[in-house]
Design goal:
Order of helices and strands: EHHEEEHEHEE
Number of strands: 7
Radius of gyration: 15 Å
Oligomer: single chain
CATH architecture of the domain at 5-111: 3-Layer(aba) Sandwich
Strand content: 25-35%
Distance between the termini: 25 Å
CATH topology of the domain at 5-111: Aminopeptidase
Strand order of the largest sheet: 1-2-3-4-5-7-6
Helix content: 25-40%
């Protein structure tokens, strides 16, 4: 599926938030500790814009079916809350969202992107590895019930 990817505006924060919540719902009650995404409000999305970040949107017509937030951190661009609605998964939308944000980083002279991925969701780790992300750090939750990788891609 080849959907257009475009830059979001702060006025679309509610849409970005709704797609994220719908996309992360499948993890409700399955992750320990629970995903922080499900505790967020639309204000978290607005904050991303206010600190110089933004979001990319994947749209089918007027319907937003995917999003990825990003923000500058030190000398890299952090990509987070990558979200694709369940009915649209497996169609290359995540890959397209990431490519869009990676190109945005290059345009800004930033030559590295980073994501964080839970080890309890191995299919997401494999997806990022296929997209040439590499593990650079392994972090643990205080309870040690789960952990996550920090992964980077040199652009």
């Amino acid at each position: 599926m080849n959907l257009p990817i475009r830059e979001a505006t702060i006025d679309e924060s509610q849409l970005i938030y709704q797609v994220m919540i719908e996309s992360f719902k499948e993890y409700d009650g399955k992750l320990n500790p629970p995903s922080g995404a499900l505790k967020e409000t639309v204000d978290h999305t607005i904050h991303t814009f206010n600190i110089g970040g933004g979001a990319a949107l994947a749209c089918e017509g007027v319907k937003v079916v995917g999003s990825a937030r990003y923000k500058p951190v030190d000398d890299y661009l952090y990509i987070g809350r990558v979200s694709v609605l369940p009915d649209y998964r497996g169609k290359g939308i995540c890959k397209a969202l990431l490519a869009f944000v990676e190109n945005k980083a290059r345009d800004q002279g930033i030559m590295e992107t980073r994501v964080e991925v839970r080890l309890s969701i191995p299919e997401n780790i494999r997806m990022y590895e296929r997209l040439h992300y590499e593990v650079i750090e392994h972090k643990f939750y205080p309870e040690r019930t789960d952990s996550w990788y920090v992964m980077r891609k040199k652009l």
